[in-house]
Amino acid sequence: MKSACWLLIVFPLALRAQQGSEKLFGYTHLQTLYKGDTVNMLVKSKAGEENKKKPIFLFCQGSLPIPLMITYTANGKTQVGNVFVFNPDVLTDKYHLVIISKPGIPLITDQRALSDSYTFKDSTGNFPGAYTERNLLDYYVERNKEVIRFLNRQNWVSKEGLVIAGHSEGSTIAAKLALETKAVSALIYSGGNPLGRIMTIIERNRLLEKDSADLTTEDMVHWQNVVNDPEQMEGTKGDSHKTTYQFSVPPIQYLEKLKIPVLVSYGSKDAIAPFEMYLRVEMIRQKKKNFSFRVYRGTEHNYFPLHADGSINYDIFNWDQVAKDWREWLLQIDKGK
Question: Are strands 54-60 and 157-167 parallel, antiparallel or unpaired?
Answer without folding.
Answer: parallel
